[in-house]
Specification:
It is built from three helices and no strands. It is mostly helical and about 80 residues long. About 30% of the residues are buried.
Amino acid sequence: MGILLWIIFGALVGWIASAIMGTRDGVVMDIVIGIVGAIIGGWLMSFFGQTGITGFNLYSFLVALLGAVVLIALVRAIRRTA
């Protein structure tokens, strides 16, 4: 995917993950959460023997959303203990 598509994809995934988890950090953080979530989701899926991010499609969106939700949950857990 091109960089612009990654930014759009990250913004969508980050925005929905933030809405699911009840956080509001702004557009830039939504993009970062979405992109990092896509990386984490891809890693998690490959760990379980499935394919990761395959492009701009529904499956990749769900994988990235899973990773973004996991990322937000991890950040929350770390902030609570610190």
